[in-house]
Design goal:
Blueprint: H1 8-37, H2 42-50, H3 52-85, H4 91-103, H5 106-117, H6 124-129, H7 138-149, H8 151-164, H9 167-174, H10 179-208, H11 211-217, H12 227-236, H13 240-278
Helix pairs in contact: 1-13, 2-13, 3-7, 3-8, 3-10, 5-7, 5-11, 7-10, 7-11, 8-10, 9-10, 10-13, 12-13
Length: 291
C-alpha cells in the first residue's frame, strides 16, 4: 500500500491548532508570570527575591531536591536492575509498587506520612520521646518528595534495560569481571542518557512538589516552606509582585530543566541509533512503558 499524505490544508490546520494550544496554555501563562513579577520594576522584583523568607524557601527547595535525587537515583537503578535483569516471584508486585506514586494523590501520600510519623501516629510517641521531628520539619518534606518522585528514574530505565537484554553483562562476567566492574563499565555506559533523563525529570518534580509537602510541612515561614508553598502564602496575603517574583524564578528553573531535557533526549536518540547500527537485531528505539 502506498503511504497516504494529508492534503496541505489539513497539515496547516493541525499546525495552527497546535500553535494555538501552545500559545494559550504555555506561552501566555509564562509571559503573564514575568509581566506580573516585573510590574513594579526590576527593583521591586529583586527586593522580593532578597526577602529572607524567600531565600529560605529557595534554599529549602534546592536542599530537598539535592537529597531526593540521589536517593531516587540509587533506588531507581536498583529497582530497574531487578525488574529488567532477573525473574523472581513478586516481580509484578514490585512493578506495581513502583507505579504506586503515580496513582495516589500527593495529598493522600502526605496524610499517610502524618498517620505514621505524626504526634498521634504509629511512630509519633517514640519519635517525640527521642526528640526526633519528622512531620512539620525538613525530614518529612524529603520523605514525601522521595515518594512522589520515585517512579521517574526507575520507569525510564526499565524498558531500555529490558530491550538491551543481559548478554553483555553475562559476557563480562564470563571474562572475569566482578559485579561492580560489570555495572560501571558495561551497564552504566549503556543507560547513561536514559539515567540522566530520569534524573532531570525527578529533579523537576521534586522542585515543583506542592500537595504532599503542604500536608507535612506545616507551612512555617522561613523554616518549612518550599518555593511552591511560599508562593501560595504570598498570593493569599495579596503580595502579588512577591508571589510572581518567586514563581518566575521557579519558571526559570523549569525552563532550564526543559532545555537540558531536550539536549539529553537528543543524545539518547543518538545513542539508540548507534545501538541499532551495532546490533541490528535489537530495536533501535525501544517503546517506553511509561514516560
Amino acid at each position: 500500500m502506498k503511504p497516504r499524505n494529508e492534503s496541505p490544508w489539513v497539515r496547516r490546520v493541525l499546525i495552527a491548532l497546535a500553535l494555538c494550544v501552545l500559545l494559550l496554555f504555555l506561552f501566555l501563562p509564562l509571559a503573564a508570570i514575568f509581566a506580573e513579577a516585573l510590574r513594579h520594576g526590576v527593583q521591586a522584583y529583586l527586593s522580593a527575591l532578597r526577602e529572607p523568607d524567600a531565600w529560605a524557601a529557595i534554599r529549602l527547595t534546592l536542599l530537598v531536591a539535592a537529597m531526593t535525587v540521589p536517593l531516587n537515583l540509587v533506588f531507581g537503578v536498583a529497582a530497574a536492575w531487578c525488574v529488567a535483569k532477573y525473574e523472581f516471584r513478586g516481580k509484578a508486585i514490585l512493578t506495581t509498587l513502583i507505579d504506586l506514586p503515580l496513582s495516589v494523590s500527593p495529598v493522600v501520600a502526605g496524610l499517610v506520612y502524618v498517620l505514621v510519623f505524626g504526634a498521634q501516629g504509629w511512630l509519633g510517641p517514640w519519635l517525640m520521646e527521642h526528640d526526633i521531628r519528622i512531620i512539620f520539619a525538613v525530614p518529612g518534606i524529603v520523605l514525601v518528595t522521595v515518594f512522589v518522585t520515585f517512579p521517574f528514574i526507575a520507569r525510564k530505565l526499565i524498558p531500555l534495560m529490558q530491550a538491551q537484554g543481559s548478554d553483555e553483562e553475562q559476557a563480562a562476567i564470563v571474562l572475569g569481571a566482578s559485579g561492580w566492574q560489570t555495572f560501571w563499565h558495561v551497564t552504566l555506559p549503556n543507560i547513561k542518557w536514559a539515567l540522566l533523563y530520569g534524573v532531570i525529570l525527578c529533579n523537576a518534580r521534586a522542585m515543583g512538589e506542592f500537595g504532599a509537602a503542604s500536608v507535612v510541612s506545616g507551612s512555617i515561614r522561613g523554616q518549612t516552606n518550599t518555593m511552591p508553598l511560599h508562593i501560595e502564602v504570598l498570593y493569599n496575603e495579596y503580595q502579588g509582585v512577591a508571589a510572581f517574583a518567586v514563581a518566575s524564578l521557579l519558571a526559570l528553573l523549569a525552563l532550564v530543566t526543559l532545555a537540558i531535557k531536550s539536549y539529553v533526549e537528543w543524545q539518547e536518540e543518538r545513542a539508540h541509533q548507534a545501538i541499532g547500527a551495532l546490533y541490528p537485531e535489537r530495536p533501535a528505539s525501544p517503546q517506553p512503558l511509561w514516560n
